[in-house]
Each structure stands twice: as structure tokens, then as C-alpha cells.
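Discussion board: Methods & Data

I've been asked by a reviewer to show the raw model output for two of the constructs in my manuscript, not just the figures. I'm not sure how much to include, so I'm pasting the format here to get opinions. Each protein appears as its amino acid sequence followed by a line of C-alpha cells. Is this the kind of thing reviewers expect to see in a supplement, or should I convert it first? Here is construct A:
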Amino acid sequence: MSPAKIGLFAVIAALSAVFFAQWASLARRRELRERPTASDLGIGLLTNFFDALGIGSYAPTTALYKFRGRPSDELIPGTLNVGSVAVGVTETVIFVTIISVEPRLLLAMIASATAGAWLGAGVVSRMRRRSIQLLMGAALLIAAAFFVIGNLGAFPLGGLAYGLAGWRFWVAVTANFVFGALNTIGIGWYAPSMVVLALLGLNPLAAFPIMYGSGGVMLPVAGIRFLRTGRFAWGPSLGLTIAGVAGALIAAFLVKSLPLHSLRWLVAAVVTYAAVVMLRSARAQAGPAGALGGRLEATAAPPRDEMPD
């Protein structure tokens, strides 16, 4: 194993240790009122099974949460980021180990995505409910569009390179910073990252360690910020953590073939409907009662920078 990969895994191990130590400390300092339900575990298993197949998990998870009405919309971004840490680490170990990519590009892409996630999590964890609904509705529509475009075969095919240089290198690094920030609101970075890297001439296989490696580092970083503000749901986050790892491992090692084309059409339809529902909720919040409620909520319960007592 290369020194770059060893260093990457050491960083991931350290960040993950900090994240889970803070989560455990938070659980001890306040009563854990909500445990994962069967549906929490089922959603974690199913959507992270999709994630390891390259379909992504954020959009379908958000859609399923919206359909069942739990957790509340403003808690969904934090729940996704907190609950996906263990899965992100697992997928990083799998894909960074088995697929090679130029170490300089890999490390720079991971660093830029992590910086974006740190910035994005700080913003999202303080946003009002209606703003989150609007952004997540838009995120779901963007995700559905990528599913449709992918199924129509309109994505660029990519090149043969396993590294980038010059302006292509800096375009990729800058784009990954933006994707890392957008990820904290629920816009998954798999599809846009693959498109940008393919347009720049990178081999499509080389995108996988970059995508999953970015997740393995930026998810603990973003998760720590959401832990500090308390803007996440306990039960669903635990469901994603516990069952999500199992789903990813099943997809990576046991499943040999699936009708991914049909699955993407199904996911696109479900996600589009969820986007409409989310945007309608935001529209309802814009009325006089909703606006007053949003102001009262912001006044009565502002996000805290410290760990909850």
C-alpha cells in the first residue's frame, strides 16, 4: 500500500475516532430518547446498498424520510451527514484499496471537499426550516435530473488518465470544494463529481476512490459540526449508521449484477415526487402563519455552538 493511502487511512481513523467519541459523549450527557425503529434500519440498509452501487444515498434517503414524515425537514441534512459517517469510512476503505489513482490528485480532492463540507455544515446547521426545505427540494430535483441524464446515456465517457495536471487539476479541486459544501444540504456529490472528472479526461474508474475517499474524510468533519449544534435526529442517524454499513458491504461484495438502469428510473420518479412535496411544504411555510412560526422558532431556539447539555 502506498504511503499516500496509509496517510489517508490514518487521517480517516483519527477523524472518525473524534466524531464517534463526541457522539458517545453527547449520548451520555443527555438522555437518548429516540432509538432506531425498524423503518430507520430498513432505510439505512436499502439506501446505502444503492450508495455502494454508485446510485447514491442522499436523495433516496431524503425522499423516504419525507414520505413517512420523520424526521422533520430541518433535521434531515444533519441526520444524513451524521448517519453516513460509518458508511463513508467503510466505502473509502473498500474503494481506495482496490482502485488506484494518482496520489496528488486524490489527496488534493479530498482536502478540498473536506474544506467545503466544514464551511457548508456551519451554514446549514444554522439555517431556518423554510430555507432548508427550499434547498433540499432543489437538491432532489437536481439529483433526479442526474438520474435521468445518466439513464439516457448523456454523461461524458471520460478518458484514460488516472491523474490530472495543470488547469485540469485546479478545476477538479475547485469543483470538489463546491461539491463538498453542497453535500451538507443533501446534494450528493457522486454524479456531479463523475461528470466533471470525465469531462477533464479522467478514467471513470479513477473517480470512485476520489468520491469515496472524499466522503470518508469530509463526512466526519461535517458530522462533528452537526453534533455540536444538535441539528440531527437520533433514531434515523443510528439507523443509517448501523444498517448502512451492512447495506454497503452487501452491495460491494455479494451483489454481482442488478438492473441498475431500471432502479435509476424508479429512484428518479420517487425523488422527483419527494422534491415536489418538499417545495410545497416550503411554500406553505411562506404564508403568514408559516412566516410567523419561522420567526418565533428562530427567536426561541437558535442553534448553539456548544455541545448540548
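Construct B, same format:
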Amino acid sequence: MKATTLALFTTLIVVNSLFCQQQIQNPGFEEWEDAGTVVDEPTNWSSIKTSDDIFYNNLAPVVWEQSNDAHSGAYSLGLFNVGSLVIATGMITNGRVHTQLPADSSYVFTDLYDERWHSTLTERPDSVAGWFKCNPSGSDFGTVKFLLHTGYAQLPGDETNHIAMAYYELPSEEITQWTRFSAPFIYSSNNNPEYYLSVLTSGNGTQAVIGSTALFDDLEFIYNENSVAELSENQFKVRIVNNNLDFIIESNNNELYEFKLIDVNGRIILTKQINAGENNSINISEFQSGLYIVIAVNPRKTFTKKVLIN
């Protein structure tokens, strides 16, 4: 009887710990609120119309919507690019927007002093996952960025308080069925984070194209010892030798991938078309020192690794 009781007690502890793992706030975009904007914002998320500059808030267009096309539940988040001479990228963040002209000087940040614009996270998730649809214009693409950090942080910004980054690019082609994405967190510190800062977009930042749209739903942090990066570890080989970044996707299928070198703020530093099974090398002697994320992606697979350039 005691053994049975102990086993049951242990099981309850394990189950309870699984359910207590910290998660994204309002991850399915089921809750919406009047934030003083033209249309409601999803609760615990904010837009370019609730930035820290009232003047720009009045001028900023609406670039989001509450969509009835949902992966689950009643609603999803719809984002869309609008504009004429200046393109406003569809975007939402759990932090707050700092709007500034020119547009590439703007950023999102964790406001430590207002609970409306910061989200606590003290655990170390393995990855972030969710569901999307998209319809990009031209070669445009939406993005998902999640930064785990301590203290104050912004995107883009310096790396001082960074703990980990997850980054995912939506395809540059129309996806009409709900499709799951998963992006591993690339950890640059052994410390635990205090907050997470996220940005979802329907276009490629200041390079976005008018008319691109994206839907997002059912986001979640994944806590799994079997990391989604295992596939990258086994097949995607990356190393630095004599100021060269050498890499290969070990496969015989000869698939075409787009290789990208990205800094920890999500800025694309370099792109290159590569084929699986072929050795590749890039001279990095002129690159700034720091942590970078390397990604090889095609419509079916994404490989992700981190590299430290000294």
C-alpha cells in the first residue's frame, strides 16, 4: 500500500511539474482587449499603435486583425503589410514598440516598469513552436523572433543581457493549410532568463513588401530533453577553421537550401544558396566578433546551429 501511494505521489509531482512549466501569455490569441486603438489588440500583446510615442501612435496604421480562421479555438492573429511610399510591416510583440524615423531605427523592448509590456520567464525552454499560414508578396517572408534575457533588452539591440534566441522565417510562398513551425533556442549563456521578448511579423522588417499577410496561432514553449536541434547536430556540420566558416548538410538527396548567417538580433548578415551533400566555406575574417546563428532552410526542413566568431 505504501509503495502504491508513493508511486502515485511521485506521478502527481511529475505531472504537476509538467503543467507548471512557464508558457507564452495568450498563445492562441483567444483574448482581445480595447487598448485605445482603432481595433482591439490581443491581450498581453501590443502593436505599433501602442508604442511609447503618442505622436506616432496617431499616425501609425492598423497592421493586425482578429481572424476567425483559427488552428484551434475561435480566433487567430492576422498580420498584414500596408503602406505606399513607406511600408508598415504587420507586427505584434509581447513587449513595447519604440517608434522612430527612419523606420530601421525603431525597435521593440521589454518595459521593466509596466507589466503590460513585459513577460516573466525564469526557465530554459528547448524551443518555441506554433502554427501559421502565410501569403507573402514577391520574395517577402514573415518572421518569428523570441529572445530570452535578463534585465532590460530590445530587438534589435546589443547582446548584453541575452540568454538565448529563437528565430524562424516563414516560407516565401503561399501556405494555405495550417502548418507547424518549431525553432530551437540557441543559448549563449548558462544563466536562467528573467523575461522573454518576442516579435511576430508578416514581412521582412524594413524590406517588407506591400500586401504580405500571415496568420499565427497556438504558440508554445517546448520543454524537451530531446532537443529539436538534434537533427541539426547530426546532419548539419558547422565549424570555424583558419578564418573560414565551413559547413555541410550530410545528406545524399542533393536538396537546395538557403544558408543564412544571422546575428543575435535577427539581422541577416549573409545569404547563400547551397546543396545538401556539398562542402561549403565562407571567409569570416572581416566579420565582427560575437555569437551568430547559422540557418539552412528550404520549404521542408530547417537546420539551425550557433557559432562564435572571435
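Answer (T.O., handling editor elsewhere):
This is acceptable in a supplement if you add a one-line summary per construct. For B, something like: The first strand starts at residue 32 and ends at 33.
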